[in-house]
Amino acid sequence: MNVYDTERMVDVMAPEGYEETDTPEGADLIVLNTCHIREKAAEKVYSDIGRIRKMKDAKKKAGEEMVLAVGGCVAQAEGAEIMKRAPIVDIVFGPQTYHNLPKMVNQSLDLKNHGEKSRILDTDLAVDEKFEQLSKKGVKKKATAFLTIQEGCDKFCTFCVVPYTRGAEYSRGVDDVIKDAIKLAEAGVVEVTLLGQNVNAFHGVSASGEEWGLPQLIRALAKIDGFERIRYTTSHPHDMTDELLDVHADVKECMPYLHLPVQAGSDKILKAMNRTHDSASYLKIIADLRKKRPDIALSGDFIVGFPGETDDDFEKTMELVRKVKYSQAYSFKYSPRPGTPAAAMENQVDEAISSARLTRLQALLKEQQTEFNNSMIGKTLCVLIEAPGKTNKTVFGRSPYMQAVQVTLGDASYKDLQGKIVDVLIKEGGPFNIQGVLA
Ligand code: 5AD
Ligand code: SF4
Question: Per CATH, which fold does 138-255 belong to?
Answer without folding.
Answer: Transcription Regulator spoIIAA (3.30.750)
